[in-house]
Prior knowledge:
Layout: E1 4-7, E2 15-20, E3 27-32, E4 35-39, E5 45-48, H1 61-72, H2 78-85, H3 99-109, H4 126-139, H5 150-161
Antiparallel strand pairs: 1-4, 2-3, 4-5
Amino acid sequence: MGGLIQLHGHGLRARQVRGPAGLNARPGVVPIEARRYRCLPCGAVVVVLPFEVVPRRHYSASAIGFALALWGLVRETARAVRRRVSGASSLGFDATGWVTLRRWATAVRGGRLFASVPAAAPSATLREVAAVAATGLAASADSTTRHLPIEQRAFLGAAHAA
């Protein structure tokens, strides 16, 4: 007979993601609850995270979707997007604004992030890749949000697509 038991403590580190906690919220660090379970038959440990946490990313899915929409659809500069999504007090040494934004667009292009969104044309720029991804994420938002700006719909839809 199989099953899982929840582990409490046992070295579980506090987890957090970056980005706005909600629509129109200031960016910051959002604590998340991670639960650990041990499989009784095999002893494996499984970590269960909220659905909008993207594996191996410091930012929430919503924050990434919002950033892609601001950059790709609203056409904000990378620096302006960073100020709205990151909350970091210093901009670092990247003269172009925010290298993480280009990394996300590259991951989308390669199917490693938001694989369910439509693919951009192979010749698309990274900003065009961001626009196509953000449009797909916005389409994933609940239909009751159609009255919201597209970047807010991308924020909401990204959590579903993560």
